[in-house]
């Protein structure tokens, strides 16, 4: 383990194309960026993860309105077997298990507090992330192969990815209001069960959980970059009252909105070296 840090990037910030001799994991907590990897452009959106190989040039440009927040880990691997596994997970991951995000936060926690065996604990969490991403990649390949063999029977003319994109777009524009899956399905033009099935298959989570996490993500932006109170933020991101907001925030983040804001302010742009 070399380094872990939380960063915020305002509009117009550019990370110049560069390369280094260690691995890097960049997890996008919030926002969207135009990411360059190996000379090819890729969109990197909220919840995406980039696993970068040593020696490969990469960088990004942030040119939209939302604040981009990242959690970065840089590390070296000396095991031949683990380096072979890393080759299979290098690249962009559109969805990552929520457990992986928790592990990244635990790595940051270990580096921040540096209690006995903090390096060993951080390395164990990193090892879990490598195995988790490898398992996810293997499952994705198996699913793709099954579809080619005709083992997955999908009704309708649009594939799952197209349905997910239309669903996400609708939610992005209406998250501050009341959202019901049945109403969304009618507006988008699919049966609610089919839409829910496709969403969970592609994203690995239910539509309702995606809505919760999106609303909490928007709430965190307002907590950090506005002067609004918790009572004012709640309806802005689709919650009927502050009690509902507090309950869902703690369900998603594990802490209250007030605790999260204090933690965020303390940790921004603080590089942690191992």
UniProtKB/TrEMBL annotation:
One of its GO terms (molecular function) is DNA-binding transcription factor activity. SMART domains: HTH_ARAC. Residues 165-263 form the HTH araC/xylS-type domain. It comes from the Bacteria. Keywords: DNA-binding, Transcription, Transcription regulation. InterPro entries: Cupin_2, Homeodomain-like_sf, HTH_AraC, RmlC-like_jellyroll, RmlC_Cupin_sf. This is AraC family transcriptional regulator. It comes from Paenibacillus algicola. The lineage of its organism: Bacteria, Bacillati, Bacillota, Bacilli, Bacillales.
């Amino acid at each position: 383990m070399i380094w872990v840090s939380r960063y915020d990037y305002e509009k117009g910030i550019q990370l110049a194309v560069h390369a280094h001799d260690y691995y890097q994991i960049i997890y996008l907590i919030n926002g969207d960026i135009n990411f360059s990897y190996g000379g090819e452009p890729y969109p990197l959106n909220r919840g995406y993860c980039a696993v970068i190989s040593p020696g490969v040039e990469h960088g990004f440009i942030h040119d939209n309105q939302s604040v981009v927040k990242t959690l970065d880990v840089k590390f070296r691997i000396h095991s031949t077997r683990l380096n072979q596994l890393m080759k299979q997970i290098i690249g962009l991951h559109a969805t990552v298990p929520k457990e992986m995000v928790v592990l990244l936060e635990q790595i940051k926690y270990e580096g921040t507090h540096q209690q006995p065996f903090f390096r060993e604990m951080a390395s164990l969490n990193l090892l879990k992330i490598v195995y988790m991403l490898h398992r996810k990649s293997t499952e994705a390949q198996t699913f793709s192969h099954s579809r080619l063999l005709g083992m997955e029977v999908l009704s309708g003319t649009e594939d799952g990815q197209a349905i997910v994109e239309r669903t996400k777009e609708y939610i992005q524009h209406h998250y501050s209001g009341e959202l019901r899956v049945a109403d969304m399905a009618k507006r988008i033009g699919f049966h609610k069960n089919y839409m829910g099935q496709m969403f969970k298959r592609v994203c690995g989570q239910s539509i309702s959980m995606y809505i919760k996490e999106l609303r909490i993500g928007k709430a965190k932006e307002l907590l950090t970059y506005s002067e609004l109170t918790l009572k004012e933020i709640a309806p802005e991101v689709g919650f009927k009252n502050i009690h509902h907001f507090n309950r869902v925030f703690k369900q998603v983040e594990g802490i209250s909105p007030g605790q999260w804001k204090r933690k965020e302010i303390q940790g921004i742009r603080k590089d942690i070296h191992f």
